Amino acid sequence: MRISLFVTCVNDTLFPQTGRAVVSLLERLGCEVDVPLDQTCCGQLHLNAGYAREGVALARRLARVFADAEAVVTPSASCAAMLRAQLAPAERPPIYELSELLVDRLGVEDVGARFPHRVAFHPSCHSLRELRVADRALRLLRAVRGIELVDLPDAEECCGFGGTFAVKNPDVSSAMLADKVRAVLDAGAEVVCAADNSCLMHIDGALSRQRTGVRTAHLAEVLAA
After folding, report:
1. pTM of the complete model
2. N or C: at which end does the chain have fewer Cβ atoms within 10 angstroms?
3. Residue 166's pLDDT is what?
């Protein structure tokens, strides 16, 4: 199967290892992966900041870039949700969040990964509440060899990032983040995993500042291990 990768702005700029992990994982599963070089932002940041017209224009541009794709995968539930929410079914490409592609389109749960660590999974708000695919990631993680998947207290609570929410409401965001970090530490996790690097960036900042020794890893990186 030929799959096009929509890597997203955040991953392209700050977390290129996630994009590489997606390619490595899919190629291991026998897929052919292409990465269109003229892809840009999906427009979510603009939309969230109140620039709806500009945001939707970027989403439509991205749809044109991937117009001929058999399937599009993105390691970001929030960007996938943006395109599905803002584009009519007839104008959007067949876009899947990574775990959704693996489980629902490819029919795979055991991807042959090995990751011998204590892992807590944080279901991002977009994967949980908009796409409703958070269970796919858990099914994939449970099949990883050597992993110890620990229960994260109040896992479905937001981490407090929310894009511009963290900038405009820093006190509330920090309080929500403190609750999430406490839950991670109470779970005894070595690694926090999620399907969105935006959430992981927020969580990792607090974990690092507090010198907890707990690190973060995108779902793609765990599955590619």
Report:
1. 0.93
2. N
3. 85
